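For concreteness, we quote verbatim a single protein encoded this way:
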Amino acid sequence: MDDQLLFARYFDLVAGRAEERGQAELRRELLDGLSGHVVEIGAGNGLNFPHYPSGVRDVIAVEPQPFLRERAGAAARTARVPIRLLDGTAEAIPLDDASADAVVVSGVLCSVSDPVAALAEFRRILRPGGEVRFYEHVRSGGGWGRRQDLLDRLWSRLNGGCHCNRDTVTTIERAGYDLKSRRNLIFPPSAKVSVVAPRVIGVAVPR
C-alpha cells in the first residue's frame, strides 16, 4: 500500500471525530450563502457535502485520490444538492474558463505542491464576480510558529504532504486576491499542542 493510500484510509477513519467536536459547524459557516455553480477542490471523502445550502445549483467536486474519491461518491448520493466527482488536481482543474460561481477549499492549500499555481487555476475557472471560500490551518505567529517550522518536514511526511506552517492568507493575497472576510480561530478550541490548531476561515475575490 503506497503512502498516499495509507494516509487516505487513515483520514477517512478518523476525520469524523473532528466533525463531532465542532468542525461540522465551521463547514456550515464556510458554505453559508453559496449559490449557483460551485467547484470544490480536494473534496476528500465528502465531509462538506451535507452542508451545501439549497441555493447551490450543483457542485463539481475534484479529488485526485481514488479511494477518497470513491468515498466522496458515496457521500454525494445523500447530499441535498447535485454533486459530480472528477479526477483532477488543484493545479490542473479539468474545467473550462469562467465556469464556476465559487471555488471551495478546506484543508487543501496546506498540501498542494504549488499553492500559487492552484490559486491561478481558481481565478481561471471563476466567473466575473466569483469568489473563493477557504477554511485552512495556517502558520501561527511568535514562538509557536517557529515550532511549526521545525516540525514541518516530519509532519508533512506523516500526513500526506500536508504542511503545518504555510502562511496561506499571505499567499492568497500575493496571488492577486482581496479578502472579503477573514476569521482567525483555534480548532478545537481547547487545543494546546496541535501544530494545526491555528486556522482561518474566509472569502477571497480576484482583484
Remarks:
- The beta strands are 36-41, 56-62, 83-86, 100-106, 126-137, 177-186, 198-206.
- Helices lie at 3-31, 66-76, 115-125, 142-158, 168-174.
- The two ends are 43 Å apart (CA to CA).
